[in-house]
Amino acid sequence: MSQPTIESILHEKRSFPPSPEFSAQARIKSMEDYQALYDAAAADPEGFWGDLAEKELEWFQKWDKVLDWNPPTAKWFVGGQLNISHNCLDRHLGTWRKNKAALIWEGEPGDSRTLTYAQLHREVCQMANVIKSFGVQKGDVVGIYMPMIPEAAIAMLACARIGAVHTVVFGGFSAEALRERLKDASAKLVITADGGYRKDAVVPLKPQVDKALDDNAIPSVDNVLVVQRTGDEITMDSGRDHWWHELQKTASADCPAEAMDSEDMLFILHTSGSTGKPKGVVHTTGGYNLYTHVTCQWTFDLQDTDVYWCTADVGWITGHSYIVYGPLSNGATTVMYEGVPRPSNPGCFWDVVEKYGVTIFYTAPTAIRAFMKAGERHPKSRNLSSLRILGTVGEPINPEAWVWYHRVIGGERCPIVDTWWQTETGGFMLTPLPGATATKPGSATRPFPGILADVVDLEGNPVEANQGGYLVIKHPWPSMMRTVYGDFDRFRRSYWENIPPKDGQHFYFAGDGARKDEDGYFWVMGRVDDVISVSGHRLGTMEIESALVSHPAVTEAAVVGKPDELRGESIVAFVSLESEHDPSEELAKALKQHVVEDIGAIARPQEIRFTDDLPKTRSGKIMRRLLRNLAAGEEISGDTSTLQDRSVLDKLRGGA
Ligand code: 6R9
Question: Which N-terminal stretch is annotated as signal sequence (predicted)?
Fold first, then answer.
């Protein structure tokens, strides 16, 4: 091996094939079906995507060429024209779906709303006209800073309808983080709400917008559109701020969808690098529409009777692709929930499943671990029999959490789709197809048809089975990011140059380590920035953490390397316990021993630190680089604006 790779030490052997009954009713029913699609796409990607684009979407004008690949610039459906809001709304109006529920919304305080396709279309058109009335034109950028209410999706679709580029900023971000993102995108208009509900409290939003725009900090913004949600008193600047409910009264519901070029920008979504300013990931119209549509349909085996619920926030790519665009483009019913599980009702998610008869439930490992900690009695006391598919995204899922999810939430009958993808990829890259793929706990299984994924060393050579390496994509796909907004060079450097092109082959690498097993299944091992180097062995975080989580006392674990003169690095594990266990010297010893027995002496943590909570991003990913600083006794460095709860760091600093 010419270049350092990553060692794999965990070997999960359990396998869960779909039941014959499930497969029989599924869109894609067997591995033979999958393989046929995969092979067809690999042999002729343009034919494959071109056929799907023709069959699955409506175009105002057909493309001249499916793909123009000038690495790292890909253009898809060149010369084609369409509008994603038309594909998500208008085209369903001429069918029976006109009066089907498009969006079912449940507010945290218990209020709710259902919008049919016709109703959603009407409100989107009205908001689009209001946005236009502020002078926003095709190509202008609109910032969206909203709670999880229907108007968040309405605002996105309204922008798309008139060709304005949306940039959604998660409603939990601070005024500074909001300012930085709006400024980077040169937003002209901001759409927000007075506030929203989260964890039994009102989260004020408009005051944050005021702060972000203070002292004319972003000269490009000249209007703010405010949705009334909480009714709390806020300051309205008469020259700049406008109430949506007032303007809606007189807004026309007639707003034709603008014909957009396939490659016209659809949105910018910022993703935080560990250092430097956030990257504005740019997605365009045609390829994104097609890819999110097809992945949503096949991976969730969408049927017209489904009630589909993705628990993400629209502020993340998961919310963009799989709450709004993917499901609506398919004419599905998508559920949107305003809140999060909270002390006053740890079972609130299961209430929503029961109330609406949710059939497909898609969430993140961090939430699953929190459900485990809260206890089985919450899901057990609700009727979850409507569920037929479960999904997970955001981090590698520890096998024990997977098995719990399968047993307790899925009643051992629901296939679990573990979807590996990124803001940058726009849609699923590695994922099971639920009627076809036998799943293995902790593996995102196989590439979606059309995705040429591989695990390679730093020179681009494929590594052997079960050897860890760098997860790459070797062929462009329709929803790949097109650039970092305003910084093409950063795009090229960040994703296309880590593994230099070889013999005309370009490698997209976005930072994850992985291994492929003897069945060709991919196991994502975590970010390569987090790899720990012990006595010359390079170890991924996921495997050691999964060994810890497989101990009955542990709910969640994060491991980091700490500089060590002898070994290069030693392993420090931050561990949170099930409620019935208390920290002790004996338990720390037992956990170290458990890791040694499970995966070997090389992974033995030198130090165990017990903690109630781990520092996470607001989308629930563990921020190991902060833990690395703590373990080394250093000051916290780098960007912390995406941190969910600052007090976690203070507690970790004070304790341990
Ligand atoms: C969709 C989303 C992307 C990073 C990605 C990887 C991690 C996401 C995962 C997963 C293992 C999965 N990740 N899904 N790791 N298994 N199923 O999360 O986008 O916020 O951009 O994060 O998340 O490390 O590189 P984003």
Answer: none
